[in-house]
């Protein structure tokens, strides 16, 4: 039977079969996916094939194959081994929850986040939360950001988890999809998820509250079915996901508006810095591109390790996860 992994606890997996029944499954033998050195063979979101067996009157499943992944997000192991832990796979949509001033979400944070999801090949929607608290100034800033990001192809939503404004539109965007909610601590992820699906208490807050610095806790992602046609993957205790290494010449490819101009640069390996006849710089000078995006790009090129080789949530208290 075909099924989807909803939960993994190390050696056992909860799999929802095509018959909509949840089965406890384990893995038969050792199968590994080519090209990925991961600590876990299958992850939440994976589509697997399994067969049922009856042991001591209990029916369990044995996973014997996995279907190709559409995408996956990883966490690098803390030690220097090349091993990665696959947090989740087959994600349709990431919602990046953004607050303007409480807490502050910087454009450099947003841009670093977006190159990560671009590199993973996962669609991202920006959700501006706490609109009920906006002053005129904050509102102007939000509208400006919305202009910058929608112009380059990112959908934006304005919501308030408290008043319920925009929640219907958010649910509509989630419809038929597997989503992940992400963003700084305190932006309202839990409150928003609760507004979308009252009663669904994800572990996000709970675990981060319990988390103690320096203590190594193991966290497991889990998928939840909502009461409408939508699913959420919760990654408790994990504030960000690590990015696969990228070379400096690749960074610009994950800025869609730079990538679109790349062919028009004189040099095909143009880093859009000081090179002559750079289409990106020319567009910037005509104010057709956003300077804040360009600034983030340069920061990422200059900052290397710090900016894009580490976990994207620099200030995350659970960064060591
Ligand atoms: N005014 C207002 N407050 C909100 C809104 N959404 C969330 N909050 C408040 O913001 C605070 C943080 O919300 P959480 O839902 O705990 O934020 P979180 O992103 O889950 O935080 P972590 O669990 O630390 O990652 C809480 O006090 C919420 O009540 C909103 O739309 N408007
Ligand atoms: Zn260029």
UniProtKB/TrEMBL annotation:
Record note on cofactor: Binds 1 zinc ion per subunit.
EC number: 3.6.1.-
Cofactor(s) required, per the database record: Zn(2+)
Transmembrane segments: none
PROSITE patterns recorded: ENGC_GTPASE, G_CP
Compartments in which it is found: Cytoplasm
Residues given in the record as GTP binding sites: 129-132, 183-191
This protein's UniProt keywords: Cytoplasm, GTP-binding, Hydrolase, Metal-binding, Nucleotide-binding, Ribosome biogenesis, RNA-binding, rRNA-binding, Zinc
Keyword match tRNA processing: no
GO CC terms of this entry: cytoplasm
Predominant cellular place of this UniProt entry's protein: cytoplasm
Superkingdom of this protein's organism: Bacteria
Domain CP-type G intervals: 80-241
GO biological processes: ribosomal small subunit biogenesis
MF-aspect GO terms: GTP binding; GTPase activity; metal ion binding; rRNA binding
Residues annotated as binding Zn(2+): 265, 270, 272, 278
Top enzyme category: hydrolase
Residue ranges of every copy of the EngC GTPase domain listed in the record: 89-239
Matches recorded under PANTHER family: SMALL RIBOSOMAL SUBUNIT BIOGENESIS GTPASE RSGA (PTHR32120), SMALL RIBOSOMAL SUBUNIT BIOGENESIS GTPASE RSGA 1, MITOCHONDRIAL-RELATED (PTHR32120:SF11)
Role summary: One of several proteins that assist in the late maturation steps of the functional core of the 30S ribosomal subunit. Helps release RbfA from mature subunits. May play a role in the assembly of ribosomal proteins into the subunit. Circularly permuted GTPase that catalyzes slow GTP hydrolysis, GTPase activity is stimulated by the 30S ribosomal subunit.
Subunit and partners: Monomer. Associates with 30S ribosomal subunit, binds 16S rRNA.
Family under the similarity heading: Belongs to the TRAFAC class YlqF/YawG GTPase family. RsgA subfamily.
Protein name: Small ribosomal subunit biogenesis GTPase RsgA
Taxonomic source organism: Myroides indicus
Gene it is expressed from: rsgA
């Amino acid at each position: 039977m075909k099924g989807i992994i909803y939960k993994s606890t190390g050696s056992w997996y909860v799999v929802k079969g095509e018959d909509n029944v949840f089965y406890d499954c384990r893995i038969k033998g050792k199968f590994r996916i080519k090209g990925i050195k991961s600590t876990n063979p299958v992850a939440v979101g994976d589509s697997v094939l399994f067969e049922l067996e009856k042991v001591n009157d209990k029916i369990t499943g044995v996973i014997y194959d996995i279907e190709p992944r559409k995408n996956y997000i990883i966490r690098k192991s803390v030690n220097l081994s090349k091993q990665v832990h696959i947090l989740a796979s087959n994600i349709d949509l990431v919602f990046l929850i953004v607050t303007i001033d409480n807490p502050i979400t910087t454009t450099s944070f947003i841009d670093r986040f977006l190159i990560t999801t671009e590199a993973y090949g996962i669609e991202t929607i920006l959700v501006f939360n706490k609109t009920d608290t906006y002053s005129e100034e904050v509102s102007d800033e939000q509208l400006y950001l919305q202009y910058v990001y929608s112009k380059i192809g990112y959908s934006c939503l304005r919501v308030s988890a408290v008043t319920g404004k925009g929640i219907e539109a958010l649910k509509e965007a989630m419809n038929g999809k597997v989503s992940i909610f992400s963003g700084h601590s305190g932006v309202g992820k839990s409150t928003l998820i609760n507004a979308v699906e009252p009663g669904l208490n994800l572990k996000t807050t709970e675990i981060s509250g319990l988390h103690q610095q320096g203590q190594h806790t193991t966290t497991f992602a889990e998928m939840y079915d909502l009461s409408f046609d939508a699913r959420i993957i919760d990654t408790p205790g994990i504030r960000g996901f690590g990015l696969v290494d990228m070379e400096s010449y690749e960074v610009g490819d994950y800025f869609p508006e730079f990538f679109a101009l790349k062919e028009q640069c004189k040099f095909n390996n143009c880093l859009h810095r000081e090179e002559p006849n750079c289409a990106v710089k020319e567009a910037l000078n005509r104010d057709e591109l956003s300077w804040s995006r360009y600034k983030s790009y340069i920061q990422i090129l200059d900052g290397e390790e710090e900016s894009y080789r580490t976990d994207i949530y620099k200030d995350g208290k659970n960064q060591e996860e």
